[in-house]
């Protein structure tokens, strides 16, 4: 979730109708997408009726006043972003839409069970590929895809992290298709970001619409930092202090997610540290303090594998800690997430998660994947090249919506350029059919209109697994756009998991 890289400016509303008109008056759901609030006949879904009834009583003028209050709250809380190309250096408010995205309790129960099942399988897969490699030997997942992945770390072979957990924090991206079914778009098992905006969005919503939360019972999200610290403490290495010393390791204030790093450290009650704040002695990690060195037991790290330790990975890294991987291999410190988890969220390995669930858990997958063509396979490459104008083509190790080809909106020149890239390095790409993401009413310069959304729930695993009720709903602010990433100009909404 990048604040600093967002190129999108939110234009001031240019409303063409009376300010006394109700905010949902004249709202028409998208013709071919599932709408999160309304059915095809423009009637609210049963679980959305209380929200639509109460929110829909607002006139445009009243709603705009609430928007101004929300903007002020975001400014006061420092939730802004900079556009690098804007030479004025003006801080912009992070785009946030005041119409929440509700999920009924019955539906959330299914999502929660599916996410827990999925993370169990991914953790078993990671242990397996760094130890016995049964799933590779039995040809359930092709060996060349795993062993040739940029995220596969040979340094982790034969090593089990303290607590036996590889993915402690996972952000799994879900989308709802035109039939209203949730499917998994991808897993983010390295350093997933964005959860601070879930918590801040809820804080702002409670300030702006306090009576809504009195009338409608919504599951709480505020316990996330407590749950995260509990999970991290539960997988501290043998010999750790009681309570364990937990720190959050950040690349520093120039990182686009630094707001989140400082937010989470503050709300967990742990130290926010940079690489130079830590030192390794006799394979033990210490935090430099004014009272002398303090042993560190658990590091929630927000830098990529390559930059963690210049002795083991990139020697030119100034962000990491020399000797950190030695201390990790010695079992003296827990890293969350573990080194080498990137192989599990490689987009060319993702299509096999349903098979992983059957292989390790002897269960059918509760949540299905989007159909995916792996361009490393000759037949899939041929199909992709023959249907570029119909598909979304993605590089396997990029994030934030970068490096993609959106076939239906691409030019002939863009498709020709991408075809060349595919032929040169097919392993680096996958393709998927275009899925029409669900929409949610969103305030635009023309009033309330449908905009496409996705959902990123956050799954925390320590001795047990807990799923944050809801997650980050990301919103495409441009009409017709299916790209919701904040780095591509998207915004966000508060996600409401309704109580039974």
What this model shows, in words?
- The chain is built from 13 helices and 23 strands.
- By secondary structure, the chain is α+β, with helices and mostly antiparallel strands.
- The strands form six sheets. It has a five-stranded mixed beta sheet with strand order 3-23-22-19-18. The chain has a five-stranded mixed beta sheet with strand order 13-5-4-20-21. Strands 7-6-11-12 form a four-stranded parallel beta sheet.
- α2 (60-76) packs across α6, α3 packs across α11 and α8 packs across α9 (258-268).
- It starts with 48 loop residues before the first helix and ends with a strand.
- 45% of the residues are buried.
- Mean pLDDT is 91; it is low at 1-17 and 82-86.
Q: Strand order across the biggest sheet?
A: 3-23-22-19-18
Number of helices: 13
Beta-strand content estimate: 15-25%
Judged by helices, strands and strand pairing, the structural class is alpha+beta
Oligomer: single chain
The low-confidence parts are 1-17, 82-86
The average pLDDT is 91
Report the end-to-end length measured between terminal Cα atoms.
31 Å
Overall 3D form: globular
Let me know the largest β-sheet.
5 strands, mixed
Supply Rg.
23 Å
Number of strands: 23
Q: Please estimate the helix content.
A: 25-40%
């Amino acid at each position: 979730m990048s604040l600093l890289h967002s190129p999108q400016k939110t234009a001031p509303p240019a409303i063409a109708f009376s300010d006394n008109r109700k905010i949902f008056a004249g709202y028409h759901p998208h013709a071919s997408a599932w709408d999160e609030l309304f059915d095809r006949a423009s009637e609210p879904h049963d679980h959305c009726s209380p929200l639509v009834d109460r929110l829909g009583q607002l006139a445009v003028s009243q709603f705009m006043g609430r928007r101004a209050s929300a903007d002020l709250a975001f400014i006061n809380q420092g939730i802004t972003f900079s556009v690098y190309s804007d030479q004025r250096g003006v801080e912009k408010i992070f785009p946030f839409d005041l119409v929440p995205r509700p999920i009924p309790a019955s539906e959330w129960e299914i999502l929660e069970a599916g996410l827990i099942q999925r993370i169990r399988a991914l953790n078993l897969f990671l242990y397996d590929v760094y130890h016995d490699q049964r799933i590779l030997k039995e040809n359930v997942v092709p060996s060349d895809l795993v062993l040739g992945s940029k995220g596969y770390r040979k340094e982790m072979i034969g090593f089990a992290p303290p607590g036996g957990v590889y993915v402690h924090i996972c952000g799994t991206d879900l989308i709802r298709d035109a039939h209203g079914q949730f499917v998994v778009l991808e897993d983010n098992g390295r350093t997933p970001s964005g959860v601070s905006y879930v918590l801040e969005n809820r804080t702002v919503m409670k300030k702006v619409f306090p009576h809504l939360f009195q009338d409608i019972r919504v599951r709480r999200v505020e316990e996330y930092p407590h749950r995260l610290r509990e999970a991290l403490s539960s997988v501290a290495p043998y010999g750790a202090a009681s309570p364990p010393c937990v720190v959050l390791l950040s690349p520093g204030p120039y990182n686009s997610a630094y707001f989140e790093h400082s937010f989470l450290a503050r709300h967990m009650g742990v130290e926010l540290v940079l690489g130079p704040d830590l030192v390794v002695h006799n394979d033990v990690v210490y935090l430099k303090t004014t009272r002398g060195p303090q042993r560190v037991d658990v590091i929630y790290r927000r830098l990529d594998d390559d930059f963690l330790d210049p002795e083991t990975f990139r020697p030119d890294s100034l962000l990491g800690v020399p000797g950190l991987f030695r201390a990790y291999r010695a079992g003296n410190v827990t890293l969350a997430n573990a080194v080498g988890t990137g192989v599990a969220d490689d987009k060319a390995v993702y299509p096999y998660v349903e098979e992983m669930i059957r292989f390790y858990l002897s269960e059918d997958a509760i949540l299905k994947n989007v159909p995916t063509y792996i361009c490393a396979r000759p037949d899939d490459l041929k199909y992709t090249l023959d249907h570029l104008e119909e598909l979304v083509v993605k590089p396997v190790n990029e994030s934030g919506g970068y490096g993609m080809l959106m076939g239906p909106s691409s030019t002939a020149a863009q498709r020709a350029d991408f075809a060349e890239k595919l032929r040169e390095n097919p392993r680096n790409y996958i393709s998927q059919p275009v899925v029409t993401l669900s929409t949610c009413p969103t305030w635009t310069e023309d009033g309330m209109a449908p905009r496409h959304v996705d959902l990123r729930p956050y799954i925390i695993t320590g001795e047990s697994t807990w799923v944050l009720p809801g997650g980050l709903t990301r919103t495409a602010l441009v009409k017709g756009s299916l790209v919701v990433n904040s780095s591509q100009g998207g915004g966000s909404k508060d996600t409401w998991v309704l109580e039974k």
